[in-house]
Amino acid sequence: MTDATEASETITYDVVVVGAGPVGENVADRARASGLSAAIVESELVGGECSYWACMPSKALLRPAVARADARRVPGLRHLVEGPLDAAAVLAHRDSYTSHWKDDGQVGWLDSIGVDLYRGHGRLAGTRQVTVTAGDGTVRRLIARHAVAVCTGSRAVVPDLPGVADAKPWTSREATSSDHVPGRLVVVGGGVVGVEMATAWQALGARVTLLVRGEGLLPKMEPFAGELVADALREAGADVRTNTSVREVHREGATLTVTLDDGATVEADEILFATGRAPRTDDLGLETVGLEPGAWLTVDDSCKVTGSDWLYAVGDVNHRALLTHQGKYQARIAGAAIAARAQKVPLLETDRWGTHSATADHDAVPQVVFTDPEAASAGLTLAAAEAAGHRVRAVDHDLAAVAGSGLYADGYRGRARMIVDLDREILLGVTFVGPGVSELLHSATVAIAAEVPIERLWHAVPAYPTISEVWLRLLETYRG
């Protein structure tokens, strides 16, 4: 650790951002757009986890798998896509979407908006101070006139099990950047990363065993989402086991032996642990400002850290919604709040849906799981709504019964649910599961965020024949 007094150079900016992923980039961009000077610090690649090890590479791996599955359900086309995927072409396409793990384009964008980039490890060094230690040992001290924004994201957590260290397990990073298709892959964890990577690598030719501690997949979504995704994975050839935990892992040469809690074993070439994430705050100098190293940072709706008037925590590090699009949303909110406070513009703290309040992180968080079938949700599940004390009704409809679904794919299987607040007659949550449903999600997000009354939604007429006609069917079911 380097003390701030050892710095060879001190530079002052209005805003200093630590972490140049999508969240940090957006905070810096909003600061510059408001006329503030900004610096950004990054120890790895500009563009962050999303660009190189998460959103972009994972979706590049998944798109061919889902496209082939869709094509196989279309008469007159399925016979053309019966063969295996060209794994080499898929991996090459993935590499192009990560810019071959080079960040020249992202660096150029920062330069174009006038944000200064400092490469190295950034640490807080007291109030409004950040030290940056470069790879050659050079230390600079950055001082922020108005705000420091911590945008360092999160990292995958690997459980401390016997043999894990020697097994050289995959995390989400290795799973999205591997240059080869493993013959046998064990995936531990039934959340988003687990099911998406199981889908991708099974389609690319790996024999996948998915081990899930709980009773089903995708536990944060409606139960039927995990059920439909599990059925599809099994039909694709994956071995999906629930209520199962790993006891130990042993590697002997190229072969892994995974021992389960019941004593059974599974052999594999690689094992992916998709079992949770932790904040990247352990070596951030939080102790210099009275905060606990390694902790998630608690913030208000402007993303200002509790008890501070200058420190912001934006994106994964505040644990509000670990999703890139929500982090970028928070960044826009935080950037506007930082600029307003710097310019001494009063914030309307009571305005839930104002420019400076990240209300959607409470009420209308959207998420898509890009499996086959897709699972897409916004807002609250039935269980979450009831736990929050709302008086609600769940309204379900079979997506296969909608005219557009049958045209989209033979044998279409899917389900839709909306959660209605019976006291206010608005939507609190919507979930869709089925092929192609990700494109339905934004309409649900708008309806929830805007608190559109059910009586108004009745007049939003869906085009025929599309899958979106499910909106009409849900409303008809609700009205009876």
From TrEMBL:
Positions annotated to bind FAD: K59, G122, T152, G153, S154, D316
Molecular function in Gene Ontology: dihydrolipoyl dehydrogenase (NADH) activity; flavin adenine dinucleotide binding
Domain of life: Bacteria
Record-annotated disulphide pairs: C50-C55
Cofactor(s) listed in the protein's UniProt record: FAD
Cofactor-binding details, from the entry: Binds 1 FAD per subunit.
Gene Ontology BP term (one): 2-oxoglutarate metabolic process
Keyword tags: FAD, Flavoprotein, NAD, Nucleotide-binding
Binding site for NAD(+): G189, G190, G191, V192, V193, G194, V195, E196, G276
Domain Pyridine nucleotide-disulphide oxidoreductase dimerisation intervals: 365-471
Residue ranges annotated for the FAD/NAD(P)-binding domain, each copy included: 13-325
Name recorded for this polypeptide: Pyridine nucleotide-disulfide oxidoreductase
Organism of origin: Streptomyces alboflavus
Lineage of the species this protein comes from: Bacteria, Bacillati, Actinomycetota, Actinomycetes, Kitasatosporales
